[in-house]
Amino acid sequence: MAAPGTQSLTVLVVGSGGREHALALAISKDPAVGSVHVAPGNPGTARIAANHPLDIMDGDAVAALAIALHADLVVIGPEAPLVAGIADSVRAAGIACFGPSQAAAQLEGRKAFAKAVMADAGVPTARARVCTDAAAASAALDEFGAPYVVKADGLAAGKGVVVTANREAALDHARECEQVVIEEYLDGPELSLFVITDGESAVPLPAAQDFKRVGENDEGPNTGGMGSYAPLPWLPAGTVETVMAQVVRPTLARMRELGTPFAGLLYVGLSLTGVGPRVVEFNARFGDPETEVVLPLLDGPFAQVLLAAAIGQLAQAPRLALRPGACVGVVLASQGYPAAPHPGGTIMLAPEPAQVHVVHAGTALDAHGQLVSAGGRVLCVVAHGDDLEQARERAYAHIDEIDFATGFCRRDIAAPARLAAIAARLG
Ligand code: AMP
Ligand code: GLY
What we know:
A hairpin with a 5-residue loop joins strand 22 (363-365) and strand 23 (371-373). The N and C termini lie far apart (58 Å). The chain contains 13 helices and 25 strands. Strands 12, 15, 20, 21, 24 and 25 form a six-stranded antiparallel beta sheet that branches. Helix 7 runs antiparallel to helix 8 (167-176). With 427 residues, it is of the alpha+beta class. It has helices at 18-28, 59-68, 79-83, 86-92, 106-109, 111-121, 134-144, 167-176, 239-257, 290-294, 302-310, 388-399, 416-426; strands at residues 9-15, 33-40, 50-51, 73-76, 96-98, 128-131, 148-152, 161-164, 180-183, 190-197, 202-204, 209-210, 213-215, 219-222, 227-230, 264-273, 276-283, 298-299, 321-322, 326-334, 356-360, 363-365, 371-373, 377-385, 407-408. Adenosine monophosphate binds at residues 126, 149, 151, 161, 163, 183, 185-186, 190, 212, 269, 280-281.
């Protein structure tokens, strides 16, 4: 039995990627947590938690596992189960769940819905048109001009957005999708702001930036993210407060008005344009690989805060303090990623020095128990340092110790020249 005044929480994290490994790590450090389970998890989460096989799109199965484990809290990582309403199934079984309802997850699942909420709430974002046929799409492309931004309305696993100077390519993407959002191009450095909310109260975490293109200098196709860092040394003072006031609070208020309060993690993707922060997108869950660098900067009872948000008591939750210093995460991906990642590449990890840890995103054990790649993004090497430069050096030094012949990484994640260029652009 736990001593009076202490708790021994059982937490189930749903998902199997780097985000879920990072969540399980942060949750396991909360002294109130007694046991951490991940379903289905991966070889990395197996080292710090108990893995369980699970079809994460089956609400009854997720609820049944949570009941069997006597879970006090379920945390759903990926967008697909959230958009499918799995959080509702868990709550219907009487178990606290960190993750929005199916209705609220539309903020990520339907771009046109998110745009309507932003318009109604007066949230600054790109001007946009929702188009269902080629003639309307063609007119919208001309209205906003190049570069063209065309977004499939529904979830598209990172493949729904085309940003291009080529009008024909933009129109082709619009034709391929039943309904698209065509919008104004936002020109400015991008950042990701994570906000923990119970629908009413909202707690922002340190802002992060991810590197979306596969190649150095942001060349090549978009990916899930090739690396990230936090905090952002170039972020103008007061930006987070501005975003909370202009974006987060009005959006949460509008969602309450609609009868679909958003509780969980509101991920605000922003562009810092010349006329202020503009929303690029909302996601309904922690972003990946930003989670890997944001969570290690938090100092405090992370699981208790998630639980408080899940049960509508975030205002009464203990505060999350910040650790000094910075974190850099560099993704090791399989050759061929994102188009056709090479599977089954052998990986030999190395002992982790202090301040460095390796998050598993797409790994598996083969028949001989050998760690192999099993996805596009395979590992994320995360390092903490007194500053970004030290964190970055530690991350790349450890990458050089890992033997993964069929893997590759970008060498310019959080590179000083890149940060200086952003700072210069912001004046
Ligand atoms: P999304 O799926 O909405 O996150 O879009 C993926 C990526 O496309 C974003 O992270 C941006 O880099 C880019 N993007 C989306 N919308 C815009 C926009 N209106 N202007 C410029 N870039 C955009
Ligand atoms: N890093 C971008 C995302 O999680 O959507």
